[in-house]
Write a structure and sequence with these properties.
By secondary structure, the protein is α/β, with parallel strands linked by helices.
């Protein structure tokens, strides 16, 4: 009898230990609400460097993991300057801030002398989702990393792969979240109260676009029927607009590689929902989609791709924390491989001219979906515009049609036509039809 009791006690103790270990494996994440100053920022948050959009309700995501070229990922406004890049550049290049600049550059992964060129290649946007990132405070002369959840409405600078790189209001450098989003414990403290619309299940992580982007299309948070086309590396002076309400037909994607299908959908302003472990190999063959070809979808809605994962070999395009080497130019694009993040066009059939050979990367796991070798997500529904502050936006603009606005123009029909992928790598920026003042 005593032996049985001892065994039961051992089993109970083991269960308690395992239960305690499970709790310990949760990753602490600090909530960062829009408009709330940081306690230990790189740049004092006095409103002179950048401004968040408070009260912006988080959008319900079509999947927990989204790549930087996903149409509708970010928002913006034409009436409010959300990030003063020149001021941040002057601050970090001031000899009096030499130590901060060293630490800032160390986190980014560049020499301090290249800070100016790096900042010139970033683009200001507003988060439309509650987004997990690796944030950094500045304490006692050192950058101190911590995981944080940035609320929708927080203004950030994104790099040429669409990754959040800097928090505008304080200048803190950001990296990608590299842990399991399903194992987070979010704390709301230091004035960061739980905001309206927050749902732990709706937080997202952002992985890098498979290749550098030329432009990003932002939903105008002041007018959700309008999208803003913003060339990468600009702050609003070259913006143009296009109709965000136009519907676009799902093209025929079967037989294409995943990478080409992803680009084709992005150029139509349609998103792709990704599996839990990230997108499949870029050269994996698409066998079909949900919804099917010809289905009209609103700008930013998601398409689920069925993929034959055995048809392509996995490729290594870097971790989500590796956004590519920083350049010292005024633009973060690569003229040999830059792509648009996808605005609606109807410019012919989807063809391969070599521009779709980029590889997709595999960022951290998402809080939703199952790893199954196929993309998961909503078809259509969760990306549908729902109100004046959180309706689904689009992607970027088409660089190959001279007749469209630089916001990419919208498709004139909803037939199952697909864009020409050959335009994305070599064509220059489209002609602007609606120049706008002021950025993001």
């Amino acid at each position: 009898m005593k032996t049985v009791v001892r065994r039961l006690a051992v089993l109970l103790a083991a269960a308690l230990i395992l239960g305690g270990c499970t709790e310990q494996r949760l990753f602490a994440v600090r909530a960062v609400a829009a408009g709330i100053p940081s306690l230990a920022p790189f740049f004092e948050e006095d409103g002179s460097l950048g401004k968040d959009r408070r009260g912006l309700a988080p959008e319900e995501p079509h999947s927990g993991l989204q790549q930087g070229n996903t149409p509708g990922l970010y928002g913006g406004t034409r009436n409010q300057r959300v990030c003063d890049i020149e001021r941040l550049k002057d601050f970090l290049t001031d000899p009096e801030n030499r130590q901060k600049a060293r630490e800032w550059a160390r986190i980014v992964g560049i020499p301090p002398a290249r800070i100016g060129g790096y900042l010139d290649g970033l683009t200001p946007v507003l988060l439309r989702h509650d987004t997990l990132v690796r944030n950094h405070d500045y304490k006692k002369g050192k950058a101190v990393p911590y995981d944080s959840l940035l609320a929708a409405g927080v203004a950030v600078l994104v790099n040429e792969r669409g990754l959040p790189a800097v928090k505008c209001s304080c200048g803190n450098p950001l990296k990608s979240f590299d842990k399991d989003p399903k194992k987070i414990s979010v704390t709301f403290e230091d004035g960061n109260k739980k905001w309206a619309g927050y749902e732990k299940s709706d937080v997202i992580t952002v992985g890098p676009a498979s290749r550098p982007l030329r432009r990003i299309a932002l939903l105008d948070v002041d007018d959700p029927d309008t999208a803003i086309d913003r060339p990468v590396g600009t702050t609003g002076e070259e913006d143009s607009t296009f109709d965000a309400t136009k519907q676009h037909a799902v093209p025929t994607l079967a037989g294409m590689t995943f990478d080409r299908a992803d680009q084709a959908l992005a150029r139509l302003g349609l998103a792709v929902a990704y599996a839990e472990d990230g997108p499949p190999p870029g050269d994996a063959t698409v066998t079909g989609s949900t919804p099917g070809p010809g289905t009209p979808l609103a700008f930013g809605e998601a398409v689920t791709l069925n993929v034959d994962t055995d048809s392509g070999a996995p490729t290594d395009s870097g971790s989500p924390t590796d956004s590519g080497s920083a350049t010292d130019s005024g633009s973060a694009t690569d003229s040999g491989s830059a792509t648009d993040s996808g605005s609606p066009t109807d410019s012919g059939s989807a063809t391969d001219s070599g521009s779709g050979s980029g590889t997709t990367s595999g960022p951290s796991a998402s809080p939703s979906g199952k790893a199954s070798g196929r993309a998961t997500g909503s078809a259509p529904g969760k990306g549908t515009p729902s109100d004046r502050t959180s309706s689904t936006p689009g992607g970027g603009t088409s660089s190959g049609t001279g007749s469209t606005a630089s916001g990419g123009g919208t498709a004139s029909s909803t037939t199952a036509t697909t864009p020409t992928l050959a335009e994305s790598a070599s064509a220059g920026p489209p002609a602007s039809s609606t120049a706008v003042e002021g950025p993001a």
